[in-house]
Amino acid sequence: MLRNFLNRKFFILFLSLHHFLFAQQHLPDSFLVLKNARNTLQVLCSKSHFGRGYTRNGLEHSQQFLLQKLKFGLPLFNGLYVQDFTHPVNTFPKHNLYILNDKEYSAGYKLLPDPATASLKGTFQLHMLQNGIWKDSLHNIQLEYRRKLTHSVSTYSALPYKFYTNDSTLKAHTTINFKINHNAQVISQFKNKNLGCYVKGSLYPDSFIVISAHYDHLGGIGKKVYYPGANDNASGVSMLLNLLHYFSNHPCQKSIAFVLFSAEEAGLLGSRFFTEHPPIALSHINTLINLDLLGTGEDGMMVVNGSIYPELFTTLLKCSAPYKHLSSQLKKRGKAANSDHYWFTEKGVKSVFLYTMGGISAYHDPYDKSETLPLTAYYEIFSMLKDVIEKL
Ligand SMILES: [Zn+2]
């Protein structure tokens, strides 16, 4: 993996020299677009942004960084670049300790609290109930074997105290001694923000194309372990910023709004709030293109709602024809409540959600890192979206 990455770097260096000498007038080129993407990924996935979540000021750091970038456009929310909203969320802000049969298990990597699990401290005896599930019924504690530990965000805490482990050797044990100090805290009114700007259309300023991506991720567990969320969704955010950079210099006939939603991982909360308090009338949105998980592309790209809007899918298909990862591998499916386009679709706005397929399998785990994100079809998608937006 590392070796390939270094080879890539040399290739990019070669490309950059080539472009520096021969093609500066055609900027932005693939080198600049990928460089911008790598920079954005590196910042958003860094430890100080702490998984763009609800502890250690993670979301706040991302907001500060992104607001600077959005200044390329005009403020979207009645003279502001931010739309405030609040929601409850369960967090794990403090140090945690998980010891199973005298062995310590690292949070996120070997042992995962369910996102809704409340604080729990003590030593408990768990008994195997069925293969891979252990319980202490008296104290309402449950441990479950899962091959992969996939984290998420909960807006509440609930019983039982639930934990997951990916250690298959535990399956040989009918009894597990569980020593635990798990710290959780529900924040009842977390102050969150959607961010957005727009580029005014030259001919139809009241008609909007909306490009959206969620910038939040899962945050962290305790003080050290965090979820970088490179593919999900620093990749989509970086694509949105690349498009904003381009269209702020090349406005279209229609206006283009660039919206960064928050609290997607907590249940599509930012986009729901946006559709309930739209800064532009939803009837003025010509098309919404939502970007989430754009960091791979080895197996092409999926268009959610592609089969609901065949005309739009045909446009996407036409514009992806020149690109090798997209041309024969642009797939479509129907409705799905799996990202921020959902509320718009439900309210009758023509909307699609694009995500890449193949490549790495890191998803909602601490391995979704910027260093290992391949960005296989990234520049192809950028070029395709540029063409699509110009045609809408
Ligand atoms: Zn996600």
Fold and architecture overview:
The protein is an alpha+beta fold. The protein has 2 domains: 2-88 and 188-391, Aminopeptidase, CATH 3.40.630; 96-182, no CATH class. Helix content is 28%, strand content 29%. The protein has helices at 2-22, 30-44, 58-70, 230-249, 269-276, 310-320, 341-346, 378-391, and strands at 74-75, 82-91, 97-100, 103-104, 111-113, 120-130, 133-136, 141-145, 161-165, 175-182, 185-199, 204-214, 220-221, 225-226, 254-261, 285-291, 301-304, 330-333, 351-356. The strands form 3 sheets. Strands 1, 2, 11, 12, 15, 16, 17, 18 and 19 form a 9-stranded mixed sheet that branches. It has an 8-stranded mixed sheet with strand order 4-3-10-6-7-8-9-5, with no helix packed on it. It has a two-stranded antiparallel ribbon with strand order 13-14. Helix 6 packs across helix 8 (378-391). The longest helix has 21 residues, at 2-22. The two termini are 39 Å apart.
Can you describe this structure in just a few lines?
With 392 residues, the chain is of the alpha+beta class. The chain is built from eight helices and 19 strands. It is elongated and about 70 Å long.
What is the fold's blueprint, element by element?
Elements: H1 2-22, H2 30-44, H3 58-70, E1 74-75, E2 82-91, E3 97-100, E4 103-104, E5 111-113, E6 120-130, E7 133-136, E8 141-145, E9 161-165, E10 175-182, E11 185-199, E12 204-214, E13 220-221, E14 225-226, H4 230-249, E15 254-261, H5 269-276, E16 285-291, E17 301-304, H6 310-320, E18 330-333, H7 341-346, E19 351-356, H8 378-391
Parallel strand pairs: 8-9, 12-15, 12-16, 16-19, 17-18
Antiparallel strand pairs: 1-11, 2-11, 3-4, 3-10, 5-9, 6-7, 6-10, 7-8, 11-15, 13-14, 17-19
